[in-house]
């Protein structure tokens, strides 16, 4: 059966033979693994629309949930991200993350169309902003991670302190594993009562407790990232590199602890970050 779909080439990899494979992130079909027959021969006519970070329209032959590339055309390419190591590393990580969170068409559990469509739109938006360089990469990364976590059902509750309900604490902590906010005053009381410290440790139930400090402006950024309209998610600033780094650390730690995994591309991004 022939199908056509829009899609973003999120990953390109070779098999043991002469075939090449791409992960295509589509608006309505989730993530497809597509075989490019003899793709390692590098025929120029195929290469343009199968390059990494290319968004296009693809004609696929489908049989038993396997896909072979028939034809394609480029709508927009972000391939020039590959000329900047740091940009390429971040784009690769965000693509990996989206692939991880987008079901293969097989094994659909939730509504793949709606969720993968929203994730793909956010990914394209992020690639565009990384490409233009108009926003610090730590902000793009952090917003993406927080919203991806929320889409996966792990949105932290940051309206106010979970214990005293203070809505505007000057200093607070994100309680990562419980997905809640604890203000510094309440945490001080807990420390006195239970001898807890503000770093990772085992609590009395043997569960990991990870508390990440949030200044009021980083808390505001977390709230903005989670609550903003889709088109405006990157439209905020933090006052300096230190706050941007704190925001990025909160987002990354929160997401990775809920996904319970890491990413090689994320390690690579950290190794080349300027
Ligand atoms: Zn409190």
Task: Give structural notes.
The chain has helices spanning about 45-50, 85-100, 110-130, 135-150, 185-195, 215-225, 240-260, 265-270; strands spanning about 1-15, 20-25, 30-35, 55-65, 65-75, 155-160, 170-175, 180-185, 200, 210, 210-215. With about 270 residues, the protein is an alpha+beta fold. Helix 2 runs antiparallel to helix 8 (about 265-270) and helix 6 (about 215-225) crosses helix 7. The longest helix has 21 residues, at about 110-130. It starts with a strand and ends with a helix. The model is unreliable at about 200 (pLDDT under 50). Zinc ion binds near residues 161, 164, 166 and 185.
Helical region count?
A: 8
Unreliable spans are: 198-202
Q: Overall mean pLDDT score?
A: 89
Main sheet strand line-up: 1-2-3-5-4
Structural class: alpha+beta
Helix content: 40-55%
From the spread of the alpha carbons, the general shape counts as elongated
Which fold name fills CATH's third level, the topology of the largest domain? de novo design (two linked rop proteins)
Bound molecules: zinc ion
CATH class bucket of the largest domain: Mainly Alpha
If classified by CATH, what would the architecture of the largest domain be? Up-down Bundle
Sheet having the most strands: 5 strands, mixed, barrel
